């Protein structure tokens, strides 16, 4: 599992080169990436679309599962859901790390629902090149929150499929 920043020059170029080299060395291993794709509303540099376009080819060819997030969705979650007026990179990183932790829980801990990347791919990937996942996460809490409340399974399920809880900006209409 490796995080890749598709919009940045170093993240897109070096990250995809690293994935390519790992794939050459270990062709029989499953490769999953957590990729931050650029957003037109939240853009740091002019060349982000070019970097993303060039890195997507490497993700299609050398990754078996790609979990997509984007900065626009992360900022929206921080501002609208978590009520943070000025989210820091620490807040955004907290969200991404919570998603990475949640997605890989069944891989890291034993239990009735334990799985591996191969089983996940068999169940979630209809065609080998269509392995880009959009992650929904619930319940969303800020990193400073220490209060807990009981949440029912139907409520969690509804939150997971709510576009406001998706880590990539989306419109389900």
From TrEMBL:
Q: Tell me which residues make up the Tubulin/FtsZ GTPase domain.
A: 1-111
GO BP annotations of the record are: microtubule-based process
For whether the record's keyword set contains Repeat, the answer is no
Using the UniProt record, give the first listed, main subcellular location: cytoplasm
Recorded hits in PROSITE patterns, A to Z, give:
TUBULIN
Provide the alphabetized UniProt keywords: Cytoplasm, Cytoskeleton, GTP-binding, Magnesium, Metal-binding, Microtubule, Nucleotide-binding
- What does the subunit section of this Swiss-Prot or TrEMBL entry state? Dimer of alpha and beta chains. A typical microtubule is a hollow water-filled tube with an outer diameter of 25 nm and an inner diameter of 15 nM. Alpha-beta heterodimers associate head-to-tail to form protofilaments running lengthwise along the microtubule wall with the beta-tubulin subunit facing the microtubule plus end conferring a structural polarity. Microtubules usually have 13 protofilaments but different protofilament numbers can be found in some organisms and specialized cells.
Outline what the protein does.
Tubulin is the major constituent of microtubules, a cylinder consisting of laterally associated linear protofilaments composed of alpha- and beta-tubulin heterodimers. Microtubules grow by the addition of GTP-tubulin dimers to the microtubule end, where a stabilizing cap forms. Below the cap, tubulin dimers are in GDP-bound state, owing to GTPase activity of alpha-tubulin.
- Name of the protein in its database record: Tubulin beta chain
Name of the gene encoding the protein in the UniProt record? tubA
């Amino acid at each position: 599992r490796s995080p890749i920043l598709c919009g940045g020059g170093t993240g897109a170029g070096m990250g995809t080169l690293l994935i390519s080299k790992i794939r050459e060395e270990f062709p029989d291993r499953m490769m999953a990436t957590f990729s931050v794709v650029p957003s037109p509303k939240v853009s740091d540099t002019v060349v982000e679309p070019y970097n993303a376009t060039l890195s997507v080819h490497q993700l299609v060819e050398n990754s078996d599962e790609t979990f997509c997030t984007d900065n626009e969705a992360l900022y929206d979650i921080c501002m609208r859901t978590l009520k943070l007026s000025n989210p820091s990179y620490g807040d955004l990183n907290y969200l991404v790390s919570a998603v990475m932790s949640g997605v890989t829980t069944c891989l890291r801990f034993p239990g009735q629902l334990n799985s591996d990347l191969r089983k996940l791919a068999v169940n979630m990937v209809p065609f080998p090149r269509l392995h880009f996942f959009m992650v929904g996460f619930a319940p969303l809490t800020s990193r400073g929150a220490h209060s807990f409340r009981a949440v029912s399974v139907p409520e969690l399920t509804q939150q997971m499929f709510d576009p406001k809880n998706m880590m990539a900006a989306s419109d389900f209409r």
